[in-house]
């Protein structure tokens, strides 16, 4: 069965991606839970976004019992900032796989990260917004984007020039 692009993906389809069933074996995969940092992609397009080159919006439902609250930190639970940052790499890798680029994505950098808030057990929803800046698909595949992470409608993370590379085994 070959990949058919869509404009949104539910949780089961994200798990299919993690298992190598969405884009095909040897191509882009997401991590399995608990490291999968979003529950659904509600919008993905190769048009729009701040740069007119594509956009992706994903959501994570916050539940007080999520694994990271139990260990980060005892008596002061907060979602680790690195998990929010990793979500941007996961999403950009998904986007590049969605464009049809063959190979496996790897995080290769970020130009700037700004934290201005935190995710706590009493929060309800995280929304990631990714604005594609550039996809290079020649001898190598590179993706670059900017993004924001909101918790309960307030922007708390900003990233600039997040980058992934796609490599073939």
From TrEMBL:
<dbReference type="InterPro" id="IPR013114">
    <property type="entry name" value="FabA_FabZ"/>
</dbReference>
<dbReference type="GO" id="GO:0006633">
    <property type="term" value="P:fatty acid biosynthetic process"/>
</dbReference>
<keyword id="KW-0963">Cytoplasm</keyword>
<keyword id="KW-0413">Isomerase</keyword>
<keyword id="KW-0456">Lyase</keyword>
<protein>
    <recommendedName>
        <fullName>3-hydroxydecanoyl-[acyl-carrier-protein] dehydratase</fullName>
        <ecNumber>4.2.1.59</ecNumber>
        <ecNumber>5.3.3.14</ecNumber>
    </recommendedName>
</protein>
<dbReference type="GO" id="GO:0034017">
    <property type="term" value="F:trans-2-decenoyl-acyl-carrier-protein isomerase activity"/>
</dbReference>
<keyword id="KW-0443">Lipid metabolism</keyword>
<comment type="pathway">
    <text>Lipid metabolism; fatty acid biosynthesis.</text>
</comment>
<keyword id="KW-0276">Fatty acid metabolism</keyword>
<keyword id="KW-0275">Fatty acid biosynthesis</keyword>
<dbReference type="InterPro" id="IPR029069">
    <property type="entry name" value="HotDog_dom_sf"/>
</dbReference>
<dbReference type="Pfam" id="PF07977">
    <property type="entry name" value="FabA"/>
</dbReference>
<dbReference type="InterPro" id="IPR010083">
    <property type="entry name" value="FabA"/>
</dbReference>
<keyword id="KW-0444">Lipid biosynthesis</keyword>
<dbReference type="GO" id="GO:0019171">
    <property type="term" value="F:(3R)-hydroxyacyl-[acyl-carrier-protein] dehydratase activity"/>
</dbReference>
<comment type="similarity">
    <text>Belongs to the thioester dehydratase family. FabA subfamily.</text>
</comment>
<dbReference type="GO" id="GO:0005737">
    <property type="term" value="C:cytoplasm"/>
</dbReference>
<comment type="subunit">
    <text>Homodimer.</text>
</comment>
